[in-house]
Amino acid sequence: MNRKFKIGLFWLLMIGAVAGAAYGYHETYGLKEDAAKQLTPVVIGYQKADPVDISRQHGVLTKTLKKAGYKVTFKEFQSGAALNTALNAGNIDYARAGDVPPVAAQANGMDFVYVAAGADKVHGSGIEVKKSGSIATLADLKGKRIAYTKGTSSQYMVLMALRKAGLTTKDVTLVDMGQNAAAVAFAKGTIDAWATWDPYSATAEVTGGAKLLVDDTGLAKTGITC
What we know:
Elements: H1 3-22, E1 40-47, H2 51-58, H3 60-67, E2 70-77, H4 80-89, E3 94-95, H5 100-107, E4 125-130, E5 145-148, H6 153-165, E6 173-176, H7 179-188, E7 193-197, H8 200-207, E8 210-215
């Protein structure tokens, strides 16, 4: 079996497994332990609450790939940019990211192959600000500190939002940081706005006193994913 066919087979199985978990598909696979069978190890990188994570939590992907001869190890990352770094270093075999990170990686010369694609995630990214703050419109971002993660949907989101408001990067202070660090900075008030995505945005709104200033609606023809 050649390498291209093996990769295609792997991802056909993976897509089926993810779809099953996403739609609440539950099945007893009746897998039999075969001590003599050698499973091929594969490491899959994912982000919190993405389709791969959902399938991982249900156990569907692990069981399906085990039946096909793969032993899966999952590794969680904060962003698609971090996934790309790990993939480029050979620390993971497959990475699930949104549309912006792979484009940014290709622009920087990273060599990889797309093996599957999912649907657009509309309303998946946005810019959060404090409910108690003075920022009510995109124009109010002028002179503010905005956190984002380079090479992800958050960077694209900030650039599109500034353009829509008639501002440039010179009109604000952009702070590149990981999403966990941005969550802490937002809570402490050391940043004024936070370009992020679910589940970070949902958590900030529920427990962090945040409100959505703008999402990807109107800033892109399709949803922007991390």
